[in-house]
From TrEMBL:
This is CPBP family intramembrane metalloprotease. The chain crosses the membrane at residues 29-50, 56-74, 86-106, 118-135, 147-168, 174-192. Keywords: Hydrolase, Membrane, Metalloprotease, Protease, Transmembrane, Transmembrane helix. The keyword Protease applies. It comes from the Bacteria. InterPro entries: Rce1/LyrA-like_dom (IPR003675). GO terms for molecular function: endopeptidase activity; metallopeptidase activity. The keyword Cell inner membrane does not apply.
Length: 219
């Protein structure tokens, strides 16, 4: 089964790279189309697994399946990853989360947090801090961003992808749109790759998770 998926995928990737060198706008359209495909696929996988595994576990499994394909699809022209850069990105993410948490206001907790299994917290942290950042950075600020940039320019690419990212995070649209603009600028103007951006993104989510978990502790 895996062979029937991987082999055609390799052919598509090779075609996109070779054809795209001579036809950059067509390659840009291809990146955008593939980003839509990889937005749909995890949802389909997640829905098929939710009934038996629960929504959170199903979401993790769907991204574990999709992330390798998304990263294999597009090769980035990014700066070299170093431990120093990763540390700075993590600190930047935590700092942004700290500032944001000051304006979060009150969080209403429904139910008894003590009754929630510890496994749930592990799954949530894994999804929010590792899987979702890797997936979103490659999807939004690699495939979509580069695709729109080739067609409409850098400014349009930054604004459009950031607006889409903000709308995808209902209830927190403005803050996430601003955060997305910063990450998009990192990608386009500083050659910061998806892995490094995912570290900042994951650190941001992890810090906010800790903030919420702290509020869940019994008084």
């Amino acid at each position: 089964m895996t062979h029937f998926i991987v082999k055609p995928f390799k052919f598509v990737v090779q075609w996109a790279h070779e054809y795209g060198q001579a036809h950059p706008k067509m390659q840009g359209i291809f990146w955008i189309v593939m980003s839509v495909v990889f937005m749909i696929v995890p949802n389909l996988i997640g829905r098929s697994l939710t009934e038996t595994m629960g929504r959170n576990v199903a979401s993790c499994i769907s991204l574990l399946i999709v992330i390798p394909f998304v990263f294999a699809l597009q090769k980035e022209d990014a700066r070299k990853i170093t431990s120093r850069n990763l540390l700075f990105m993590a600190l930047g993410g935590v700092s942004a989360a700290t500032v944001f948490s000051l304006f979060m206001g009150n969080i209403k907790i429904n139910g008894d947090p003590v009754s929630i299994p510890w496994f749930y917290y592990i799954v949530v942290v894994l999804y929010n801090s590792v899987l979702a950042p890797l997936y979103e950075e490659k999807l939004c600020r690699s495939l979509q961003l580069r695709g729109i940039q080739v067609i409409a320019g850098s400014l349009a690419a930054i604004l459009l992808t950031s607006a889409i990212f903000g709308l995808a995070h209902k209830g927190n649209e403005m803050a996430m749109s601003v955060y997305a603009v910063i990450l998009a600028c990192m990608a386009l103007y500083f050659r910061i790759g998806a892995i490094e951006r995912a570290v900042a993104h994951g650190a941001y989510n992890f810090a906010l998770d800790l903030h919420v978990f702290f509020l869940l502790l019994p008084a």
